[in-house]
From TrEMBL:
InterPro entries, per database record: AAA+_ATPase (IPR003593), ABC_transporter-like_ATP-bd (IPR003439), ABC_transporter-like_CS (IPR017871), ABC_transpr_LolD-like (IPR015854), MacB-like_ATP-bd (IPR017911), P-loop_NTPase (IPR027417)
Domain ABC transporter: start-end pairs: 14-243
CDD domains documented for this protein: ABC_MJ0796_LolCDE_FtsE
Pfam families in the record: ABC_tran
The keyword ATP-binding belongs to this UniProt entry's keyword annotation: yes
Protein name listed in UniProt: ABC transporter ATP-binding protein
Domain of life: Bacteria
Length: 243
């Protein structure tokens, strides 16, 4: 198969070496990633922290196969993502990655269940949409339209949609950025539940230092690099978090 690596570490979900990303806009170039090396173990709960513009979303988009590094190599398990063509990268993303963004991106004319079904209809081994909605605590809201749901409930539908295809990895970019503390905690609980029950590797970008305590590790970004790695021996449960 394309891009197999001989020195494979089977305990890792992602391994990146020397990842660089340069955005070129006309005359201006921005070095968003400046030589990032990383290893993300399977089943890890990882938080990316750092100031605005430090490269967190750029890295998340690259590990999720939405974008490519300018240079460097990136592996997901035994597959070298940086050796895949566009079709193969899309196939990887569809099969393995669930994305959750700050704004929920639900289709307003579809019910919660139908929003989830959009994904399960094209997945290989999906959950029933109602089971995914039950897992996020919305069994009684399946027939509601997004406008009939609160912001936190809409985000939980987005989590259900992301986990329903049983992805190996959940990538979350400011998943609680638009939510107040108690609503945000319920969303974090659904991420923790997917992590615990499905063994999903979870990567969360946040500006909120309060959230970082639920992670196994925290990567601190600065100027396109990982400035510091913090290991958390005792991750706390989301219900103990507030901000
Ligand atoms: N598509 C793009 N074209 C040009 N420059 C970009 C593009 N995307 C990001 N950048 C630049 O790359 C740098 C890193 O951006 P990135 O979005 O990865 O940072 P971030 O840490 O996620 O920031 P935030 O916390 O504000 O979302 C920034 O200087 C940004 O302006």
């Amino acid at each position: 198969m394309n891009g197999k690596d001989v020195a494979l570490d089977e305990s890792l979900a992602f391994r990146g070496e020397g990842l660089e990303k340069v955005y070129q806009t006309g005359e201006t170039s921005v070095r968003a990633l400046r030589g990032v090396d990383l290893a993300i173990p399977l089943g890890e709960m990882l938080v990316l922290l750092g100031p605005s513009g430090s490269g967190k979303s750029t890295l998340l988009n690259i590990i999720g196969g939405l974008d490519r590094p300018t240079s460097g190599r990136l592996f997901y398990r035994d597959t070298e993502l940086t050796a895949l063509d566009d079709r193969e990268l899309t196939r990887f993303r569809r099969a393995q990655i669930g994305f959750i963004f700050q704004f929920y991106n639900l289709i307003p004319s579809l019910t919660a269940e139908e929003n989830v079904r959009l994904v399960t209809d094209i997945a290989n081994n999906p959950m029933e949409p109602r089971d995914a909605l039950e897992l996020v605590g919305l069994a009684d809201r399946c027939d509601h339209y997004p406008a009939q749901l609160s912001g936190g409930e809409q985000q939980r539908v987005a989590v259900a949609r992301a986990i329903a295809k049983r992805p190996g990895v959940l990538l979350c970019d400011e998943p609680t950025g638009a939510l107040d503390s108690s609503t945000g905690v319920r969303v974090l609980e659904t991420l923790e539940r997917a992590h615990a029950e499905l063994g999903t590797t979870v990567v969360i970008i946040t500006h909120n230092v309060g959230i970082a305590v639920m992670a196994h590790r925290i990567l601190h970004f600065r100027d396109g690099q990982i400035a510091r790695v913090e290991t958390n021996e005792h991750p706390v449960e989301p219900r103990q978090i507030s901000w």
